[in-house]
Each structure stands twice: as C-alpha cells, then as structure tokens.
From TrEMBL:
Protein's name according to its UniProt entry: Cytochrome P450
GO MF: cholest-4-en-3-one 26-monooxygenase activity; heme binding; iron ion binding; steroid hydroxylase activity
Family of this protein: Belongs to the cytochrome P450 family.
PANTHER family per UniProt: BIOTIN BIOSYNTHESIS CYTOCHROME P450, P450, PUTATIVE (EUROFUNG)-RELATED
Pfam family, one: p450
Length: 460
C-alpha cells in the first residue's frame, strides 16, 4: 500500500512541482525571453545610438534621423567630408561610392548582426534565442557567407536571370493592366494599397506558386515584417514583428506542404526537390530561402514604384521627357533607384584585420555602407541631387549592393519598375498626388506607407 508520502510525491509530480515548472517555463517562453531579446537587440542599441546622436556621432545620427523620413542629403555630405571611412562610436561609416563598393565586395567583411561575446549579454542572447525564422539570421541568404551562401544562391539564381525575367515581361504587363482596369478613375486612391503593393506581390507569388486567395495574406505579412531589418525597435513594434514572423513561418510551412503534395511549375516546387552535389536544402534552409525571396521579391519593389511615382509627379518636366522619349523608361527606373533607393544602408562586420582606402579596420568592427549616400557622390554623379531620367550613368548606383550579396532579383525589379511606372502614367496621364502621403517609419527600407492620388486631374 502506498504511503502518504508516496501519494504526496505523486500529486506533486502530476500537478504540483512539474506543473509549476511547466508554468514557469511557459511564462519564460511567452514573456521573459521576448523581453530579453528586445532588451539586448533593440532597447540597448537604441539607447546607445540615441545618446551617440545627441553627441553628434554620425552612425547615431543617420540611424535616428532615418526614422523620421527626413531628407538626409546634408548628412550624406557631412559623412563624405570626414574621409573615406568616417569613424563612429561603433565602427565606421561611409557614403563614398568607391568605398561602398570596395567594402561590399571584400571577403574581409561579412554580413552579421552585433555580437555580444561570451559575457552576460552573450549568454542572455543565447538563452533567449527563438527558432522563428528571421530575415537577418542564418540560414537566411542575407546572413550567411560561402560556402552556404554560394549553395543557396546557386539554387535560386536561375529563376532570376535576364533571360528568365524577360520571359515574365508579358505576364507582368498583363498584371499591371488588370490592376489598373480595377481602379475607379473618378475616386481618389491610395496607390500603395491598390497598385504599388499588388503588382510585385502578384508577380513574385506566381513565381513561387502562391495561390491567388493567399496573396493578400502574404502582402500583409510582408509589410508587417518590414521593420525586422531595423535595430532599435520599440517594444510594441518588436512584439508585432515577432508575431508576424511567427505567422509567416507557419504560413510557409503550410505552403511548402501543399506544394509537396501538389508540385507545380514554380520556384518553390523546384527548390523542394533541387539537389546540388547530391544535397538538397533542409527544411529550415528551404523556409529561410523561400521566405526571403518572397518578402524581398515585393517589399523593395513596392518602394521603388511608390518612390518613382512620387518623383515623377514632383518633376513634371522629366515625365514630359519620358513621354517624348519612351525609350528612356528603363534608364528612368535606374535614376529612381539612384535618387531615392528602396534600401538606405547595409552593414558589414570586419572578419579579420584589414585596411580600406588606406584606413585600418579591426576585426569585429562594424562598417555601415550608406547606399543612398554613395548614390549622391559628386565624384561619380554630376549634380547628384538633381533627378534626371536621361542621366548617362544612372545605372552606376549601388542600390542593389555589390559583391557576392548583390541583389539576385535586380533584373526582376528593374523590369517591374519599368512596366509598373510606364503603364500607370500612360493609363492616367493626369495622375496627381493628393495630401496625406506618408513615408514608412522604417529605417532600412525607404518608401511610402500611403500615397494618395487623383487619377483624373486634367493633364498639363
């Protein structure tokens, strides 16, 4: 017969001690670990960068000022005037075109988020880590280096070659026409919601086998996850981003399962079965690659289209030039990318002691390459602040990066930008902006959150 102590132990085991431990563990997973992740990854960097900005530090200033949507041209010039690599509190930054290209092409620099070492911060970061896929955490293409990066990229590159993209041109034109057919010319519209977002998400969804009824979900998830690239998020935005990434992760699992059951003629179906030297992608690698291609395939193009519409409506003489010389539309897209790029900057961590433009850079230091600043370098672009769709070297911008991490969707973005911008201005020659335009609050991704417009204003 069991003793009272045996029965007490059984009770504690069933619903007492173990139950309490499970509750504590659940609470830690739900509340404590996210708070620690936010504190280390965002609250601490935000406090450091804001303090640095108040003291005039260039890295702090560009991080803080970017979130306001302000014109950063003066700051770009100030950074450039400090030399090839301007020293900052956490490393270096540059807006010189030649130096940006050199850093992004140098294998001494790798893509990485800040590291916290083996001390208490490093231990807390490891303890609080989450398994949810993140666009700037391995095995994302944005966060890995060769040989893994080479393997992942090789598997997806063939879909984005110039020849493959050209074959998508007719279908992209049909999508643009269909979207514009659905607009009521008599009613004001938000072009981000009704056109700039829907065009690229439809194109990339067809490439990746996403069914039409799920594309609105993908668009919403992508837009909500956009701040995930930024440091220094508020607690509310951080929690929203984590919730969205978790939802995106779950959606990807369901989508991949559906494609395994019913494969089609699309990139993800091919990636599921693809082999490189006998090895395919693991489930985690597959989800990271698919998620990044899907989100990157429309998030930056949304910005390209919105920024382009805004620039052309504010520079009517340039729009008139395009109407007179429609062969310039391709060049105009590159000028939009140069003048108001969808991505402000990108960072690289120094993997070994090296020199850049004669300046020593130590292992572990961060170098921030300001893409938008390099695009305004007067040593490369004459009158760089001018928006000129006939600029002879507009294509020399660095908005797609450089080196091994050069944007694999660059050809697709150019094609969508050309068709998307030309078609809307051909269809609605009197298109005019309305009050209420609002820039996105994100720091890395630069574009419009809202872009109200009238489609029926009498043309000039």
């Amino acid at each position: 017969m069991d003793s009272p102590f045996d029965r007490m132990g059984e009770t504690l085991t069933r619903g007492g001690v173990l139950g309490t431990l499970r509750t504590v563990t659940s609470l830690a997973e739900e509340h404590v670990k996210p708070a620690v992740r936010w504190g280390i990854g965002h609250a601490l960097p935000r406090a450091v960068l804001r303090l640095a900005a108040r003291r005039g530090d260039l890295q702090g200033r560009i991080t803080v000022e970017a979130s306001t949507g302000a014109d950063l041209t003066g700051l770009f010039d100030e950074i450039r005037a400090r030399g090839p690599l301007a020293a900052t509190k956490i490393g270096h930054t540059t807006t010189r075109h030649e130096v940006v290209r050199a850093v992004l092409s140098d294998d001494a620099f790798v893509t990485a988020r800040p590291r916290f070492g083996a001390g208490i911060l490093g231990k807390l970061a490891a303890w609080s880590a989450t398994d949810v896929m993140h666009p700037v955490q391995p095995p994302s293409l944005l966060a890995v280096e060769p040989p893994a990066h080479t393997r992942y990229r090789k598997l997806v590159t063939r879909v984005f070659t110039a020849r493959a993209v050209e074959q998508l041109r007719v279908r992209t034109q049909q999508i643009a026409d269909d979207l514009l057919d659905g607009l009521d010319p008599a009613s004001p519209v938000d072009l981000i919601e009704t056109y700039c977002g829907l065009l690229p998400v439809t194109v990339i969804s067809e490439i990746l086998g996403v069914p039409p009824q799920e594309r609105a979900t993908v668009l919403a998830l992508g837009a909500a996850a956009a701040p995930s690239l930024d440091l220094g998020l508020s607690w509310r935005v951080f929690r929203d981003v984590e919730t969205t990434l978790s939802s995106f992760d779950a959606w990807l699992s369901r989508h991949l399962d559906a494609l395994r059951a019913n494969p089609g003629d699309n990139l993800l179906s091919r990636l599921i079965t693809a082999r490189e030297d006998g090895a395919g992608l693991s489930e985690r690698e597959l989800k990271a690659t698919a998620g990044l291609v899907l989100a990157a395939g429309f998030e930056t193009t949304v910005n390209l289209l919105g920024n382009g519409i805004s620039l052309l409506t504010r520079h009517p003489a340039q729009l008139d030039l395009l109407r007179a010389r429609p062969e310039l539309w391709g060049n105009a897209v590159d000028e939009v990318l140069r003048h108001d790029p969808p991505v402000l900057l990108t960072g690289r961590m120094c993997a070994r002691d090296t020199t850049v433009a004669g300046i020593p850079v130590r292992r572990g230091q961060l170098v921030t390459t300001v893409l938008a600043g390099a695009n305004r370098d007067p040593s490369v672009f004459e009158d760089p602040s001018a928006f000129d769709v006939s600029r002879a070297n507009a294509r020399d911008h660095v908005s797609f990066g450089a080196g091994r991490h050069y944007c694999l969707g660059a050809q697709l973005a150019r094609m969508e930008g050309e068709i998307g911008l030309r078609t809307i201005f051909d269809r609605f020659p009197g298109l005019a902006p309305l009050p209420g335009a609002r820039r996105r609050p994100t720091r890395i991704l630069r574009g419009f959150e809202r872009l109200p417009a009238s489609l029926t204003t009498i043309g000039r």
